[in-house]
Request: fold
Amino acid sequence: MRISRLAHVAVGTEGIANLQAFYEELFGVVQVGRRGELCFLATGRGFGYDIVLGPWPPGMDHFAFAVADADSLTQARERLSGAGVEVETVDLEGEHAVADGIRFVLPSGHVMELVLPDSSEVYLPRPLVDRRHHQGIGPVFLEHVTMTCGDVERTANFLVDHLDIKLSESVQPTPGHWFNAFLRSGDRHHDLAFFDSPDGDVPGLNHFCLAVPSAEQIVRVADLLAARGVTLDSSIGRHISGNNVFVYFKDPSGTRIEVNTDMAEIDPAAPPRVMTESLFDAWRTGIPPAVLSSSHCRDGRGVRAEAR
Reply:
């Protein structure tokens, strides 16, 4: 089974036009498709789209990973169904540049998709990306998504056992208690991560991340946000887990975004690193309180998490 990368995140908002303008001006994304009220935005770094805006409650409706070929999608469907997971076929009428896909619910309640792009995955060097994407700090790259849930261990093991996702790192303060799990489909330190939820067994979104080539663009985004009157959720720092330089803030709908650079790469044969202490930032102690909060996320088990 070949799962290649994070394909897209679906973000809910009550003001699609305003949020679209914010993303376009700040990140250089452009609209590449429209299906009813759904707006598909692309970073220009490959085929398809990276963010879809829709009339869902503010927060994340679902996220999707791309598979490399039809055989991988078939294998994923069979393995999930064999494990007793209800698997649905993605409705292509509500998609853009997708040839096929499946949707299912993780043990955490998050809705996940695996999609087969309708074109080969090709990443363009930054200088060759269409000039429309060179706005704000663009062009950017959709890198990872971090969520909160009530049982990190169960959710992480589900992805490892059924989808061949690899565990890169986990903080486990005491035996049997997983504070977090960083997971990867390729060689980056993580494509998705889960943290222990402050709200019990309620799925939440902590952030999704857009990557840039250097720390200079991170300074640039902080300046652009300040000019718009947006307060950062954290100042610029460097993570211990992943090595990446980061900054966090919220978009106009209240969804947190990380912009980062210099994510660590992991040897495919490397075993998971397990620690007992969470070290957020190499440059200072503690975790900014604002970063610990989660926002609304669709609960695929039928219970909607309220905005927090």
